[in-house]
Task: inverse folding
């Protein structure tokens, strides 16, 4: 599940994080690839199967 | 806000592999970011330090994060731990002792007496501190036993110091003999009054002659009632003396200065023969001095301060 809370993007129940850099974060959630694009992106918090992203988020895209 | 953690740096071609392992081991991480193409940093609580070092051989700790981690790193060393325990022990034991006693009062002879009284009641440098009730009891006990010598006593604790304030017992002025009206026994100009009782009739800088009334022994109220109060004290005034000496000198070869010095000494001692504590010669002027063969002629003027009311 992915939702936006204040200035964070929170993800619950992800399968795998594929890529992390300051402009893109790609992860797999529910067999879908999700791309979070922006500037100065940081994984603020990660524990078990939930994490949150902060930074200047421009867009979130879903791919099959 | 993380209270105790480490900032780690790790080099990885594929970050997903690292994150998989972290997820599998249920390790918490914060602020994961890429700092260069294959280098990432993140913060993790101190409890996962061992696990991370086992999982990733190339992981580095950049710095400690959080106020608790500084304390924990200090306690890692045995010497720090021992030093902390010893200092805590000393602080507790020494802060429960008296390290200074201040005795403040109006009699030097009583200072030592009071210090001895405190000693007999177990108040001394190095002794254990007492609570407020115990101090109050000791204060009352010392005051009760020595009521004829001490008028006021207070014992207070201020940190590791004891402050003792006291006043000596004051003696009442009994056996005072009051007199009647005070009259001037000499001519003079009033300088000052030192009276315990009486109503002044003259004021400062008044010129008075022998026999003038200076202080009355009766007080007249606003309702014209007369109350006898008596007089007690002194009236100081400026008085003047002209002294002329015309005599032969025994040793004619003595120098003038020596003759003069000897004569002055003799004259002054004669004038001040009956002077009391507050009377003195305040000015002396030489009017004439001549030594011819075996005769010396000296004329002096003295201004004195005397109690003109004394008998």
Result:
């Amino acid at each position: 599940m992915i939702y936006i809370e204040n200035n964070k993007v929170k993800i619950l129940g992800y399968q795998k994080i594929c890529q992390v850099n300051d402009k893109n974060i790609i992860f797999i959630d529910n067999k879908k690839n999700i791309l979070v694009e922006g500037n100065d992106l940081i994984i603020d918090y990660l524990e078990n199967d939930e994490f949150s992203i902060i930074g200047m988020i421009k867009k979130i895209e879903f791919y099959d | 806000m993380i209270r105790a953690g480490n900032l780690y740096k790790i080099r990885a071609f594929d970050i997903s592999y690292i994150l998989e392992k972290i997820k599998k081991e249920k390790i918490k991480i914060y602020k994961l970011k890429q700092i260069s193409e294959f280098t990432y940093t993140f913060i993790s609580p101190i409890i996962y330090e061992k696990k991370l070092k086992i999982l990733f051989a190339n992981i580095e700790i950049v710095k400690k994060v959080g106020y608790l981690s500084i304390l924990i790193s200090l306690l890692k060393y045995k010497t720090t731990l021992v030093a902390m325990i010893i200092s805590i022990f000393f602080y507790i034991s020494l802060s429960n002792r008296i390290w200074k006693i201040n005795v403040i009062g109006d009699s030097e002879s009583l200072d030592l007496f009071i210090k001895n009284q405190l000693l007999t009641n177990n108040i001394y440098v190095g002794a254990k501190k007492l609570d407020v009730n115990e101090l109050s009891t000791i204060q009352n006990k010392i005051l009760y036993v020595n009521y004829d010598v001490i008028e006021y006593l207070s014992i207070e604790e201020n940190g590791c110091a004891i402050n003792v304030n006291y006043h000596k017992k004051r003696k009442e002025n009994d056996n005072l003999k009051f007199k009647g009206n005070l009259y001037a026994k000499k001519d003079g100009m009033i300088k000052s009054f030192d009276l315990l009782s009486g109503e002044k009739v003259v004021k400062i800088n008044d010129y008075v002659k022998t026999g003038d009334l200076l202080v009355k022994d009766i007080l007249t109220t606003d309702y014209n009632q007369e109350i006898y109060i008596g007089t007690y004290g002194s009236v100081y005034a400026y008085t003047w003396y002209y002294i002329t000496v015309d005599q032969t000198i025994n040793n004619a070869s003595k120098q003038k200065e020596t003759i003069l010095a000897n004569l002055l000494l003799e004259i002054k001692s004669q004038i001040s023969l009956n002077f009391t504590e507050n009377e003195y010669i305040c000015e002396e002027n030489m009017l004439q001095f001549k030594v011819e063969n075996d005769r010396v002629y000296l004329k002096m003027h003295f201004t004195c301060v005397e109690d003109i009311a004394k008998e």
Observations:
- Residues 17 and 25 of chain A are 8 Å apart (CA to CA).
- The longest strand of chain A covers residues 32-47.
